[in-house]
Amino acid sequence: MLSKLPPALGGDNGLRALLTDLESYLPPKQIDTVARAYQFGADAHDGQTRKTGEPYITHPVAVAQQLGRMHLDVEAIVAALLHDVVEDTDATLEDLTERFGAEVAALVDGVSKLDQIQFRSRAEAQAESFRKMMLAMIEDIRVILVKLADRLHNMQTMSAMPTEKQRRIARETLDIYAPIANRLGINSMKVDLEDLGFRYLYPMRYRVLDKALRRSKGSQRQIVRKISEELGRALASEGIAGDVIGREKHLYSIYRKMSEKKRTLSDVVDVYGFRIIVDDVTSCYQVLGLVHGLYKPMPGRFKDYIAIPRVNGYQSLHTTLFGPKGLPLEVQIRTREMDRVAESGVASHWQYKAEDRADATPQRRAREWLSKLEELQAEDSSEEFLETVKVDLFPDKIYVFTPKGDIMPLPKGATTVDFAYAVHTDIGDRCVAAKIDRTLVPLRTALENGQTVEIVTARGAKPNPNWLTFVRSAKARTAIRHHMRNLRSNESIDLGKRLLDRSLKDLNSSLRKIGKVRMKEALDELGLNNTSELFEQLGLGERLAPLTARMLLGKSENSAENSEPANLVIAGTEGMVVSYAKCCYPIPGDAVMGYLSSGRGIVIHRTCCGNLINFRKQPEKWIAVSWEPEVKREFHSQIQTDTQNKPGVLAEVAATIGDCGSNIEQVEVLGRHDDCSVLSFLLLVRDRTHLARIMRNVRNMPNVIRVNRDCA
Ligand code: MN
């Protein structure tokens, strides 16, 4: 295999070591692909060097090696080799797709996107949110594995960097990356990331601890060897196959024990760690009995993580013994399989599935890993915690930044308006525009993980009922509805008051003439608390004004009215309690009638509208309305045209309508015959005069046969 490589590359920059590792579990064809990816990466990064002075390609190779040790699949290895080419060289995602397939390109793209979001805060809670944001951004768990390996190698080669940068990266590693590795059960990476983070964040403490540990290790060496041999002999005497390993101390965990549990250095350091790895679970318990026979167990220190595994899938028996001269011995006993899972967590699921790729989308594997965890947990109290692992890996939330760098969780599909309401109801109510990553966007724009969102507000701005069609969060929806309700309530109070006053005037009275005392009596009779309630009901059409007027005056329902009923004058500014029927599209100048629709206020129809026939059956619900002489707004109106079937006719008609100062809201082709098309236009017009001018101009066009408006 290696002989096929160009001689110059044979031993280059760790490639040979990488390929040797991979040959233990990948087929030759895939090894070829890896070699090809190396070549591509080396060419792309040609001339670039690391801060350490080495050729740049040594970095991706080291990242790939790390993943090779975890036996990840060929796509992950290739993506690791190429993870920086899109960001740092001329190579594009298209190049990668073409040469190595869409899967590899998607992995590299995922890693680049993670690189683009910056962690800017030091708050504990923010770190937690940021971890969630990162996990939410990845669609393929391998992206985070590449990223973790990338971070690990960067930490390993950080010595040439300025101290400030070292500290920043170290803190980020301890806050973000090590906990993610832990959550995914990848102990090997977690331990290395923590030790390196500790070393660069607290160099002094690290040095002191490291020195003390080395010193004690020197003096402990003899004892460790002696005890290892003793344990080994005990296993052999029972015929149990197994390895005994003197366990290395993990510096950061020692440091944490000292600072959290207030132990002295010697308390923590003078503990001897051993790991015994055997073939099966039965042997684990056998060995436990054996070591408890050999040395006295320390009470209360035995933990059975085989029966009750940790939430990230870790399984092992833990016990502490009184060794020779009373020295504490910490012993872990586990199977090879458990050891593998303990070291590589979610990645261990790639290893024994490497052969069978049929069912193997990456997320599927992550899910399998999770369901395995669930099986292991069985009716244990940590169920809730496991639930959070699942939510983190397969989130239904997205995470975005505020301009200050705070992280805001939102439901998937949330828009800028949801964001505004999440910041504060007041911001939501007054928002008029939004920026995503400093670019203005429409308010309905759906947000994506990692974006920075900024809301522009204006004094006096109000929520738009249309927002209800796109907001996703309960908070936004509730706030908008609440606002609408208030608005409508105010509008209906105004209208109701006018309706009642008008009806009273029909009876030669008025609200003022009624007086407070009579009004109070009437309210009691109706079971209402105040006049606002009465007006609101009247405005919403839930109560009829003429009946209420008679009641206020103490008149029977049948008594004759003194005069012709006065019209209610419509100004077009009544808001939501006066609406215009979509069956006949009334406009100022049309003869109209108002229908009191319970709960909706008044709906205005044209008197020629076909629907009036039905409504006439309830005359008490109809009120006479007329237009205010000057109505200052636009109304929808609908016209139909019959035109010649010629190309460009629609555009010509539209242009003519536009020339008349009207906007076309909607065009519909109602029918198309051999030589004639029937088109329907929904327009915005000011009044009947405006519409008449439009219709005349359209009618005069050469290709237009006929123009009409329903029941005009
Ligand atoms: Mn990198």
Describe this protein's structure.
It is a single chain. The chain is α+β, with helices and mostly antiparallel strands. The radius of gyration is 39 Å and the shape is elongated. The protein has five domains: 2-204, Hypothetical protein af1432 (Orthogonal Bundle); 208-347, Beta Polymerase, domain 2, CATH 3.30.460; 396-462, Beta-grasp domain (Ubiquitin-like (UB roll)), CATH 3.10.20; 480-627, no CATH class; 635-708, 2-Layer Sandwich (Alpha-Beta Plaits), CATH 3.30.70. The strands form five sheets. Strands 1, 2, 3, 4, 5 and 6 form a six-stranded mixed sheet that branches. It contains 28 helices and 20 strands. Mean pLDDT is 84; it is low at 1-11. A hairpin with a 5-residue loop joins strand 5 (317-322) and strand 6 (328-335). Residues 59, 83-84, 150 line the site of manganese (II) ion.
